[in-house]
Amino acid sequence: MFSKTGTTRAAARGAVALCAVAALSLTAACGGSGSDDKGEGSGSSQADKSTVKLPKLKGEKVQVAAVWTGDEGKNFTKVAEAFEKRTGAEVEVTPTGDNVETFLGSKIEGGAPPDVAMLPQVGVLNQFAKKGWLKPLDKATKDQLSKNFSKGWQDLGSSDGKQYGVYFKAASKSLIWYNSGAYQNAGVSEAKTWKDFVKNAQTVADSGVEPVSVGGGDGWVLTDWFENVYLSQAGPEKYDKLAKHEIKWTDPSVKKALTTLAELFGKKELLAGGNKGALQTDFPTSVTKAFDSTDTPSAASVFEGDFVGINVANDTKAKIGKDAKVYPFPAVGSDAPVITGGDAAVALKDNKAAHAFLTFLASPEAAAVWAQQGGFISPNKNLDGKAYPNDVQRKIAKALVAAGDDFRFDMSDQAPAAFGGTKGKGEWKALQDFLKNPKDVAGTQSALEAAAAKAYKD
Fold it and tell me: Which InterPro entries match (predicted)?
């Protein structure tokens, strides 16, 4: 799959650390939820400070490929514009689509790669590094990394002892966002356990509101559902083994996790639009369903990462911390799961402008630009928390940074892209089929294992 270097070490932590991060996440998600501080002050001005030395690049062009579109794309463009202002360079941002590996692979093999790419998967970073497609970071960027990032995040951007990636954007992917009005009307509160979560969903359904909005039209959402259930239930050691395909997807632990997930997916009245509706719902729509009304929304809750905040802020009238609240993914086993994701910037061309852009992305200055817009958290430990637009986002980010090196990275993002990151294939397809027919646990396991065996072998 990928080299057994620092990339895997950051994920290989113990259960004690998991508990500590879970406690931090609980504070982050629920504390100070009544605040909607717009982040004025030192955090806001941090985006305007010259926190990193950059060369003058007037007349130079930097082509950057990234998966982000819509609001995320607009916010990343603001980061690029800040770099242009500082250096005089011209940045062109090109969307890759969901299949980043295929898009970039065709560009590279065709002799026309972008200067910089944002990779949302550790597995792809390692695959590209092994093929010799990535350029090692220069000294200026590595200096910024050592100053601003914990060793765990640095390790995630390395392969075979060489540093290639800057984790500019991170994600806390173990959160339940809920409509406070719908919960209040149904008489339910934040669930600490999976059992209570399913029970609450039934109570919400009985109140006349569909309980859980699932963006099953996007396969990656379903991988996140599975991973949170699996990590909490099977534990960190099993999680790490399955992530590296050291145990098969036909393992009893996978059966147990799918069976648990079927307690929710197997009751169509618990899903907004039922199973068919969930399969036809993309991620952004799954968020708006939960917050399209403060009294009788299309759904009472939605699961996903901190980035849900940008959809809530831009696509609904709900106020984060008031109408839209958040709590940690409920514990299935003894501990609540804590899973992170992230996007790493890498250089595909060895030129001055590409390296300068990576150096900029490794600075607090660049992170502050997007942080102010919302829907973003950074593992940059020197980013001023005041840059975040509200207390909820600020405390989620604080918990991520406070975790240091103790976290589990998204499992599907560690896998080869053919298995963990391709639309209509591999894990995405198998879990969508499972959402369609949650009774077929054995068939889902067989499909997952067949796809994994092929992808990891290749």
Answer: Bact_solute-bd_prot1, SBP
